Amino acid sequence: MTFTVWCPDLERVRVQVDGVEHDMAPAEHGGWWSADVDASHGTDYAFVLGDDETPLPDPRSAWQPQGVHAASRVYDHNAFAWTDQSWAGRELARSVVYELHIGTFTPGGTFDAAVERLDHLVDLGIDLVEVLPVNSFDGPHGWGYDGVLWGAVHEPYGGPDGFKRFVDACHARGLGVVLDVVYNHLGPSGAYLDRFGPYFAGQNDWGPGLNLDGPGSDEVRRYVLDNARTWFEHFHVDGLRLDAVHALADKRALPILEELSAETSALSETLGRPLTLIAESDLNDPRTVTPRSEHGLGMDAQWSDDLHHAIHVRLTGETDGYYADFAAPGALAKTLRGAFFHDGSWSSFRERSHGRPVDVASVPGSAFLAYVQNHDQIGNRATGDRISASVSPGLIACGAAIVLLGPYTPMLFMGEEWAASTPWQFFASFPDPELADAVRNGRRKEFGRHGWGESEVPDPMDEATFRRSKLDWSELKHPDHVNILELHKSLIALRREFPELSDPSLADFRVEVADDDSWIVMHRGRFQVRVDFAEGAIDVTSAD
Question: What is the pTM of this model?
Answer without folding.
Answer: 0.97
